[in-house]
Amino acid sequence: MIQTPTQPETLSLELPNEIVIYVTQEQFEALSAVNRDLRLERTAEGELIVNPPTGGESGQRNFSITGQLAHWHEEHEDLGEGFDSSTGFRLPNGADRSPDAAWVSRERWESLTPQQQKGFVPLCPDFVLELRSESDSLSKLQAKMWEYIDNGAQLGWLIDPQNRRVEIYRPGREVEVLENPSNLSGEDILPGFVLNLRRVWT
Can you say whether residue 54 is alpha, beta or left, with left for phi > 0 and alpha for psi between -120 and 50 degrees? Predict the structure, then answer.
């Protein structure tokens, strides 16, 4: 009788909030490769951030947002490339981030080598969007939005469904706060794009 080797049992390790794990970029890539069901991020200082899968409501909202962005992209494909929340970007400051939606201009995307386009994208997107879930800290998301702007993003939206509020981030300007808007304009970064927030607020 042929005996097949048994696989070792997988155990889960839960860490208190006060314990911080630091990893190198190489270690982060290895962790990401074997934990594809998790959205892992890494700060510029090397701190590992584990983002669990979203719940149903956040998933519906994300689906609506990325669907609308994808529809706009199909009609403006020559302008650049759009990305969903599973895409990792290596920012100039060394952080590895995965915004809920992102867009990169055609010129900047095509300046990358084929190998760079396959892995963690070594640039900050021109446009980034973060959708706050119930478990997200607003202050941490706000700091993350400023990190995107400081690293080259031209337009950023922080959408907070709990408070029906949107914060708009732009380089060199104060944050613009919109209370219960019905839509958002992509301005000159995403020309012609208008995000309908009806599904996001419901």
Answer: beta
Residues in the chain: 202
Pick the residue with more confidence: 90 or 36?
90
Q: Report the chain's terminal Cα–Cα distance, integer Å.
A: 59
> Tokens in use for 63?
């689906």
What's the CA gap between 61 and 66, in Å, rounded? 9
Amino acid at 9: E
Residue 58 tokens, joined: 């956040």
pTM of the model: 0.84
Residue 48 CB partners (closer than 8 Å, separation 6+): 20, 21, 22, 23, 28, 31, 40, 41, 42
Let me know the angle formed at the C-alpha of 184 by 192 and 159, rounded to the nearest 5 degrees: 135
The three-state secondary structure class of 127 is strand
> Which residue type sits at 181?
P
Phi-psi region of 109 (alpha: psi -120 to 50; beta: other; left: phi over 0): alpha
Look-up: residue for tokens 């386009």?
Answer: 117
Angle at 185 between CA 56 and CA 39, to 5 degrees: 35
Q: Mind listing the pLDDT tens digit for each residue in 40-54?
A: 888 899 888 877 666
* DSSP code per residue over 70-95: HHHHHHSGGGEEEE-TT--EE-TTS-
The architecture CATH gives domain 54-201: Alpha-Beta Complex (3.90)
